[in-house]
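Hey, quick one: can you model this chain's 3D structure?
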Amino acid sequence: MNNIPTVVFWQRIIGITQDGKFGPDTKKATIEWQNIHGLLADGIVGPKTWIKAGVIPPLETIYQNVGANLETVNIVAVKGIENASLDDLAAMIETARSIGIEPDYLATVIAFETAGKWSPSVKNPRSGATGLIQFLKSTAIKLGTTVDELAQMSFSQQLVYVAKYFSSFGKLNTLEDTYLAVFYPKAIGLSSNAIIASAGESVYEQNKGFDTTNKGYITKSDITSTIRSVYNQGKARGVVEVPLVHI
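Sure thing. Here's the predicted structure for all 247 residues.
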């Protein structure tokens, strides 16, 4: 939304011509500013960007005073979501939307992969996988970083690499496919009883918690039913209201 007082205010902050129009030049300058300041460089002036610029909460009061458009998004209250700040959640929502994933689905995957810690530095002691979606060492290198570097990033900085990872999958329409893209992409499209890993294999040994009945193997349904349970438990807890601001 091109609200002139808000746009002029933002253009003054980033040091460009103050014409009151949030067009291509302003978006480009915004992305450059976000890159310089270690933010998710998506060209959207959300809560994290405003705060980095020195605009201090209460956000709703500030934004309404300058005539901005405030949107409230409800996110399912999955495990540990209270460990994430509203700014982190706003950045997660913006990231999910930019890559065509339902924000609730991305929240559920992060909650499960981090065991409810919502920390970009959490590490699996067996595999060394690190971060919000448990990047493997090989995956991190393919994305142009390392797990050590990922562990030092802020929540919003690591979301850049979350977006890079998911960008290769196109639109993921279900919670199950969103999680499989992280855990075992080859399982997307397989039947529910397909065996993903068996005892003795590294994938099984690192994820044997999925085999709740001690069958000696993990099926696709073991994985998808687990992530669906995480989502349903969060849904039973309610929602978290997250403010987003658009200019």
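One thing worth noting: Residues 75-246 form a domain with the Lysozyme fold (CATH 1.10.530).
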